[in-house]
Amino acid sequence: MGSIPTVSVLVPTYQYGHFLAQAIESILNQDFKDFELLISDDCSEDSSAQIIRSYAALDSRIRYVIHSKNLGMVNNWNWCLTEAKGKYIKYVFADDILPRKDSLGLLVSLLENNPAATMASSARQIIDESSKPIDIWSGIDQSGFHQGDSVIARCIRNDRNLIGEPSAVIFRRSSAARFFDSSLKQLVDQEMWFHLLTQGGLMYSSEPLCAFRRHSAQQTAINQKNQVTSAESTRIMVRYFNAFKNALISSGWYNFNQRLFKHIYYARKDSAKSKVSEVAQARLLLELTKPGYCLFLSLHRLSKPFVNLARSIKTPKNVSCL
């Protein structure tokens, strides 16, 4: 391996000592070997430091830091990105794993063979706390190259991160000099993906090349409980709205304006209220207009009893709708 590795694999971690060894081993066991592994422990109080030091003593590709003060989730991600030396960036969160020995090599090849792409991602195998596979998630319906603006428009239209979590993504370090937006808490990754996609396209694989763990202690579950998503989603929509308005309008007048209404309505109910969020809501309201908002609010109230009824007889929990 040369002085500059092809990939920097970044593992930001906090209080995940019970998962950490499995994540590290899944990285070290990859067939693709030209990588550095940078582990950043955010002042954990569990066994994380001991585990990290024991692996670092065995493999020279591992660099690590045990922070003396807690940086916080996004700042820890950005610290890793600041220290990375590789051409490509691959996050693997400490509670996730690379489920196949060829996962890293396949993701690297997607970027190596497609210079117009700034990032690549894949379907995700979902595992539980005991690492048992329980589902497969895939937000993109077709493998191959996708134009950046069309991916952003689809995510905004569906109000979902169709690209995947950081553990599912690899991207060019040169395209991420701005770093993650630390003013966000939940949709940090989605906003960064949009930023990358304004510079190029997405390569996607329908093969699950990462395993994403679902458990009650993960930050996503905490943020959803605290209701911080809607206000952030509205801010992001406004940030990327003008460039992709035409693609959004292509879904039809009703669908477009209904999407505007939902962003405003749920952002107003969100617990993460801020001046920035209020400005974003006002921007969308200018587009929808106050009469338009009142119209869709009336339709929402009229349809709510039927929506609640449909939810009460929805499909069983173990049936995937993807």
Search tags:
single chain; Spore Coat Polysaccharide Biosynthesis Protein SpsA, Chain A; alpha/beta; 12 helices; nine-stranded mixed beta sheet; 18% strand; disordered C terminus; 322 residues; 43% helix
Describe this structure in words.
This protein is of the alpha/beta class and about 325 residues long. It has two domains: about 5-220, Spore Coat Polysaccharide Biosynthesis Protein SpsA, Chain A (Alpha-Beta Complex); about 225-310. It has helices at about 15-30, 50-55, 75-85, 105-110, 150-160, 190-195, 220-225, 230-240, 245-250, 255-270, 275-290, 290-310, and strands at about 5-15, 35-40, 60-65, 90, 115-125, 135, 145, 170, 200-215. Strands 1, 2, 3, 4, 5, 6, 7, 8 and 9 form a nine-stranded mixed β-sheet that branches. α2 (about 50-55) links the parallel β2 and β3. α8 crosses α11 (about 275-290) and α10 runs antiparallel to α11. The model is unreliable at about 315-320 (pLDDT under 50).
Short description:
By secondary structure, the protein is of the alpha/beta class. It is built from 12 helices and 9 strands.
Structural class designation:
alpha/beta
Regarding quaternary structure, how should these chains be classified? single chain
Beta strand %: 15-25%
Principal-axes shape call: globular
- CATH architecture grouping of the largest domain: Alpha-Beta Complex
Count of discrete domains:
2
Q: Tell me the distance between the termini.
A: 40 Å
Question: What is the fourth-level CATH superfamily of the largest domain?
Answer: Spore Coat Polysaccharide Biosynthesis Protein SpsA, Chain A
- Helix proportion of residues, in percent? 40-55%
CATH C-level class of the largest domain is Alpha Beta
- Taken in chain order, the helices and strands follow as EHEHEHEHEEEHEHEHHHHHH
- Gyration radius, in Å: 21 Å
Tell me the number of helical segments per DSSP (H or I, 4 or more residues long).
Answer: 12
